[in-house]
Amino acid sequence: MSDWFNIVLATLVALLPITNPVSTAALFMSITSGKKKRERHDQAFKAAIYAFAILIAFLILGTIIMEFFGISIPGLRIAGGIMVIRVAFSMLKAEMEEVEPDTKKEAKRKSDVSFTPLAMPSLSGPGAIAVTIGLAAGTERLADYSAIVLGIFLVILAAFFTLLAADKILKFLGKTGINALSKIMGFLLLAVGIQFLINGITEIIVDEVFLNRLVQSIQNVS
After folding, report:
1. Domains of the chain, residue spans
2. Residue 211 contacts by C-beta under 8 Å, 6 or more apart in sequence?
3. What is the predicted pLDDT for the residue at 92?
């Protein structure tokens, strides 16, 4: 049972920083500034549903996608680790990156912003998808999958409540507080990305086929 809870916790730790609900809350308030409170709540709810569905879809289809493209589990973890590290470094910058003006204008013209840009790419972008597939890689037991699903649900639930209280959170934290929180999330995300890299490289090094080829190469050289 402890292993099950560990998987739930690992999913939370890995996904929460990369979804960064507070950063999404700032975007949410910016692009829904002209909407009524009820409309903003509806958009937040739909965004949470979409984000959850996207991550669950890739959790289920991740293995099929890997097999179709011939991607190994170590390869996926290394690629995912590099992507997560890149996102982490952008979050560790002195100032939060502003949303591109064109993206803001396009979002403000839309009546429904729940799928894009809120669910995709803010809450369930490429980084979150890579982390989800990475967590599921090598998972075979149904109980482990259920733990990942619960972890995803808790992350999206936290994001949903953050969006609902976006105005209060942003007023309380201010720009300085948001930047500081983003750096903390970035640091945690950096640790997750490096761990992904370590796991992927370790799996390659201890692989029996790799070791046999390495030994043969050394013997041929000598």
Report:
1. 2-221
2. 205
3. 80
